[in-house]
């Protein structure tokens, strides 16, 4: 399959401002009014008859499908937004189905994202369960809108607070734990002025991420035609704003940085942690909520979360969107958020689903991406991952794979442009 090469389209005149006004409406609507929505069958209001209730439910489903269809059409027209196998000046994307059925992985890259210049968004989503492909696609389309809308609100609130002399932000800054912020630089050498600015950025985005992820999970819970009871998705999302990366992670997909050491050798820095039930803090939370964590004898290295009194559904991650059968028993959709300040040595970030990480190490992935033309980096990585599946697990079904490569800095952009010429 050939990778589509996508550049900026100066002829596009759809009106980004007009689009974003509509997108904000989609992004900020959490559908929390169960009375008007019916909550996808969650409403407890009595209907006149089962037939009438069925007609109302079908009508809600049709309305939501039309709404989702309109949103998808608008998103497809957004300049600089990629979600299919393609490449641009700054990114390379590729996904390929495994041998398990429909491809449940989704991906997105969005240039010119957000209210500030030099802002990009990218994300990887690995669906699971009967409706996993629908959940992953829905989160791919809706989460960026919610995040952008929330960021704009937070930026506006912050500016108003500064104009009125509000010191709440500074107080929060002083009191905030920076455990997630310590990965900001591989060298760890930042002067206080830069650290203060970057900490402000981190705190602003942290609040936006938390609110957007919460709203996304709530929308899935109330969705009238996507059954998320035993289906869900992971999400690794990255916002690049200037020289800062803000990463939000739910599940066991992964983001890895390709950077160079003092000898100019390329090496990998993992930016996210695989949030699996085997992690002590995750297992403790699950067990405190009456969920169970154990591995099956047939796969002793794969810890899963189980219902208290039923050996199902056996989810191999501790955080996920959807999967509401487990949300009362320790599964959460709260993202782990971190920050990285881009240095001159940083070249690219690779986001990938576990279909890649199960067969290739971080260093192998970084080595592959760094050795091929950037425009074909994602496709090369996916193809090699599929080959590795056949070699390492010949009796297992190859997993779906999805990759987004985000190239950092002018040198990376020049390499992409050269490879695309």
At a glance:
The chain is an alpha+beta fold. The protein has helices at residues 16-28, 34-37, 50-76, 132-163, 168-175, 192-221, 280-288, 354-357, 362-370, 377-392, 409-420; strands spanning 4-5, 81-82, 86-87, 91-96, 105-110, 119-128, 232-233, 235-241, 244-250, 254-260, 266-270, 292-295, 303-307, 310-315, 321-322, 336-341, 346-352, 401-407. The chain has a single domain (4-275, 317-420), classed as PPM-type phosphatase domain (Phosphatase 2c, domain 1), CATH 3.60.40.10.
Which value, in Å, is the CA radius of gyration? 22 Å
Mean pLDDT level: 81
How is the CATH topology named?
Answer: Phosphatase 2c, domain 1
Q: Which of globular, elongated, flat, extended, rod-shaped describes the shape?
A: globular
Low-confidence stretches: 1-16, 22-26, 28-47, 160-193, 416-421
Proportion of β residues?
15-25%
CATH class: Alpha Beta
How many individual β-strands? Answer: 18
Q: Quickly give the structural class.
A: alpha+beta
Please report the number of helical segments: 11
> Helix proportion of residues, in percent?
25-40%
> First CA to last CA: what distance?
19 Å
**Topology order in helix (H) and strand (E) letters:** EHHHEEEEEHHHEEEEEHEEEEEEHHHEH
Tell me the major beta sheet: 8 strands, antiparallel
Q: What's the CATH architecture?
A: 4-Layer Sandwich
Tally of individual domains: 1
GO molecular function: protein serine/threonine phosphatase activity
Region (Disordered): 33-65
Domain PPM-type phosphatase: 90-408
Biased composition (Low complexity): 43-52
